[in-house]
Amino acid sequence: MTIAHEGSFTSAAARLYLSQPSLSVQIRKLEQDVGARLFERTGRHIVLTAAGSALLEHTEIALAELERGRERVAEVSGLREGEVRVGVLPSIGARMLPEVLARFRRAHPLVGVRIVEHDISREFEQLVRSGELDLAMTRMPLTLSGLCVDELVREPVLVLVPAAHRLAGRAEVALAELAGEDLVGMRTGYGLRDLADQLLAEAGVRPRVVLETGQLAIVHGMVAAGMGVALLPRMAAGEGPTVPIADSCAFRELGVVSRASAHVSPPVQAFRRLLLRTARD
């Protein structure tokens, strides 16, 4: 699993505190055991074969279960108070997390909470499935198997506009009316950009993107400066001038993702319950 993530025997060996020859011998033995090559070299990088990809999926699940087993032993033995590892999209973290974290800390002061921010939902799904995260607040629907999801919120997508824009003050706007507008957005591959591109494509609008960025704050600043408009969900749109979208497809569904596992630690269960209750409120 480490070789697959690092893309290099040398880097993986260093991370595992092994010599490269020793690691290579282990991989050869594993390939003999499963009866297939697991890696192949492409230029300077090592990539998984189809057989390697198939084995990796089960390896991640197996190692995650082993870590869960260690956590259960620690809980039973009273060796530690526990930790909850939560992934969150930056566009929702500032709105949903503060109250949840404050309430959780008051109720469970000895349980640590580690927050991981990421803009790509699929990355969170992989981290939850591999056991590196306990929960993730991310966009629905799911794309990977071995996970379960509880709906957090369904929020409208709005058009963020400059204060002096022709659409400012409108009661609502159809997506088709955005044809020809300059668009400010996140970079391709980011969840907010994927959502905007999907909505515009469904409306038959080809966006004219004048600025791309990896920071939501820059999107807000550029729109305020008159560079263009932006399509953003309500929690990401902030306090700037916005116009509701008339199209029924203009919404974002968010959920809390966890592994489809028989055991979930008490701290994780408590955090998920509080998160869902806060979202409903």
From TrEMBL:
Superkingdom, taxonomy of origin: Bacteria
Keywords: DNA-binding, Transcription, Transcription regulation
GO molecular function, one term: DNA-binding transcription factor activity
InterPro entries (UniProt xref): HTH-type_LysR_regulators, LysR_HTH_N, LysR_subst-bd, WH-like_DNA-bd_sf, WH_DNA-bd_sf
Residue ranges occupied by any HTH lysR-type domain in the UniProt entry: 1-49
GO cellular-component term (any): cytosol
Signal peptide positions (record): none
Entry's family note: Belongs to the LysR transcriptional regulatory family.
Protein name according to UniProt: DNA-binding transcriptional LysR family regulator
Originating organism: Pseudonocardia alni (Amycolata alni)
